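INTERNAL AUDIT FORM
Audit reference: QA-55
Scope: verify that the stored structure record matches its stored sequence.
Auditor: D.O.
Record contents follow.
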Amino acid sequence: MFADFTDAVKQTTSNVLSLDKLKTLQINLGNLCNQRCLHCHFEAGLDGNKIMSQKVMHDIIVFVNQYPIETIDLTGGCPELNPNFKFLIEKIRPLCARVMVRTNLTVLFEKGLEWLPAWYRDNKVVLVGSLPCYTQENVDKQRGSNVFKKSIRAIQMLNSVGYGSDSNLELNLVYNPGGDFLPGSQQQLETDYKRNLFDNFGIRFNHLFTIVNAPIGRFRKYLEANGTLEKYMELLYSNFNPEAVERIMCRTLISVDYRGILYNCDFNQALEMPVRDKWGRPVSISDIDDILTGGTQIITGPHCYCCTAGAGSSCTGETVK
C-alpha cells in the first residue's frame, strides 16, 4: 500500500503544496470531441454535452483583462468544437502574449473548420497537437481508425502556413504512452519523432511533450478491465521523484471548467475536485481573487503521483531536466 500523496510530499520537502503564483490559466471549453481516445481522462466524445457558454467566457475575459497571465491554455475535449471558440480567442489574444490551443489535429478536417490553419497563423496561436507515436499502428490503436493519416495531413497543412519553421508559429506535439508504462526520455523521443516524421512525411515541429497517463477516466477503466490498476499505481508510486514535486504544474496553474468553476488542474476537474473557499463552496472565475492572495492549498489524490513519477509530468511535458 502506498502513502497518501500529501504525506509523501511532506516527507520530501518543507514547502507547502500550494498555489505559488498564477502563471497559466487553463480553460477547458467542454467535453465535445470528434475522437474517442482510450486514454482520455475526460471521456470526451461526440456525445459531449458540457459546453462552455459565452457568458462564462465573458467572465474569463474580464479576469484576464485585470490580471497579467503569462499563458492562456485552451483544452477540451476538442476546444475548436465549442461554437464560441473563435470569439474567445479573438477577445483574449490581445490580452495575453501566449495563447495556446491543445488540438487533436484531425479537427482541421471537420466540416466548416477549413479556415483554422490560416486563422491560427494570423493570430499567432501556439499549437499543441496530440500524436502519441510516429507510427500508424500505435496511434490508431489509441485514438481510432485512420487518425494517424489524418493527423499527418493536418500537420503538413500547418507546416504549409509556417508552423514548425517560422519562429513566431510554434507547433509542439504530445506523446503519451499507449499502455500502463512511463514515457521514455523526452529528449530522445523528440529526436526520434523529428527524424521519423521528417524522413517519412517531410514534417517539422518545435518540441515534443511527454505526458504520463493519469489513472482516471477511460484510462482507469482500461486498467481495471485488464486487472492492472494496482500494478500501475505501484509503478507511479515507486517512481516518485521529490525533485518533480518542486516543479508540479498546480503551483502555477488554475484550471477552469465549462461552468467557470476552478480546479488545481485538469485532472482534478475530471474528478470533480474543485478549489473551495473557507466555507467549503466551489470557487468560480468571478471569485478567483479569493485564492490569489497566496497560500491556497492544493487538493490532491492518488492520481497526483502521475505528475511526480520519473522525470515528472505536466501539460508541457517533463518537469525534471
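Auditor finding: record pair retrieved intact. The chain has one domain: 5-307.
Action required: none
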